[in-house]
Design brief:
It comes from Kordia algicida OT-1. Belongs to the RutC family. InterPro entries: RidA (IPR006056), RutC-like_sf (IPR035959), YjgF/YER057c/UK114 (IPR006175). GO terms for molecular function: deaminase activity. This protein has 129 residues and is of the alpha+beta class. It has a single domain, classed as 60s Ribosomal Protein L30, Chain: A. Helix content is 21%, strand content 26%. The chain has two helices and six strands. The protein has a six-stranded mixed beta sheet, covered by helices on one side. Helix 1 packs parallel to helix 2. The chain is globular, with a radius of gyration of 14 Å. It starts with a strand and ends with a strand. 29% of the residues are buried.
Length: 129
């Protein structure tokens, strides 16, 4: 068993005792990403679509750091602060996946998220998926 920590400057740096992702035995477990601009460290204050797009772009950078793409993703978890935003989030999220090979997923409304953002997404990806 070999555990490899995945980090990239192209996604927000961790703000606590965790890493952007961990790769073990060909499976990548990502930490949740929120809409923080990795270049400035600033939280995006835009529409729910802009927020979701930045989350997905941050996740794309983490996947790339592990030599993976969204095609390698087998499971996602989406945490949202308001289920009324589901269709807008889903519309942006769907642009990153092929409908026929899209991963398993759950979407859960929560009371609060870090920095009181509207959406946080984490993923599990597998090499050679």
């Amino acid at each position: 068993m070999s555990k490899r920590i995945i980090t990239t400057p192209n996604a927000p740096a961790p703000i606590g005792p965790y890493n952007q992702a961990t790769l073990i035995n060909g499976t990548l477990y990502t930490s949740g990403q929120i809409a923080i601009n990795p270049e400035t460290g600033e939280l995006l204050k835009g529409s729910i679509e802009e927020e979701t797009k930045l989350v997905m772009e941050n996740m794309k950078a983490v996947l790339a750091a592990a030599d993976m793409t969204f095609e390698n993703v087998v499971k996602t978890s989406i945490f949202i602060s308001d289920m009324h935003n589901f269709s807008q989030i889903n519309s942006v999220y769907g642009q990153y996946f092929n409908d026929e090979t899209a991963p398993a997923r759950e979407t859960v409304e929560v009371a609060n998220l870090p920095k009181f953002v509207n959406v946080e997404i984490s993923m599990i990806a597998v090499e050679n998926a």
